[in-house]
Amino acid sequence: MTTAATRGDRRISPVFLGIAAVTAVAGWAVWTDFADATGFAVFLFVTGAWIVSLCLHEYAHARTALHSGDLSVGAKGYLTLNPLKYTHALLSVVLPVLFVIMGGIGLPGGAVYIERGRIHGRWKHSLISAAGPLTNVAFALLCTAPFWLDALDGVPRAFQYALAFLAMLQVTAAILNSLPIPGLDGYGVIEPWLSYRIRRQVEPIAPFGLIAVFAILWIPEVNIAFFDTIHTLLRALGVEEYQRYCGYDLYRFWRGLFDEQDPGCAVG
């Protein structure tokens, strides 16, 4: 019989603490202009913060499941915030980071494994699925707070740009993961309310949901509409397009080795 999570099961992992420490140091380097290569510091800060948000996303699923009746999440290590404990570490961390590096888009991570049979009540199942995207929403609000609070005085431009780009990643992750497509959290929210027949029919295609999303995003009209939505939301939160663009430009520090970075984004 599975018992409640022990204190050890809930202890924050040194792996997560290490990632958070690197993020904090890199953020300090961006803020103080301590680093000789600002772009590299932005890269470490945004990547570290992105991984932290992925860990918190999965933690939110697991913590909500714990309080909903699945006591097994503690023994699986999901409450330690250790990204190496996730069921699909590749999908949960590696691929999302690669997509940020290659395309500047917040790819939803792979989910932790929840023993749904232990949980009773459709609302609980929906809340478990919603907990992850809601974490991204909270992270986006935190990143954009200096913008919509009009509190940017004294905030270095490089740090503003880094926050703007990080906010875009959170917004894209929240929107993509909230789509009612099998395999994504949005579908998990509505799945408990569907008939058994429909759920059985959808189950075989769930592993391919994320692939379908990116295939659809390749359609030019869909891609334009998607990013127009992202830009509109961020603009409503006080983040201008040039700030997001410059954040991504700084993030790709390696471009300076081959091409000149946009002079309009210079921070020195």
From TrEMBL:
It is a multi-pass membrane protein. One of its GO terms (biological process) is proteolysis. GO terms for molecular function: peptidase activity. The keyword Metal-binding applies. Coiled coil: none annotated. It is found in: Cell membrane. Belongs to the peptidase M50B family. This is Site-2 protease family protein. It comes from Streptomyces badius.
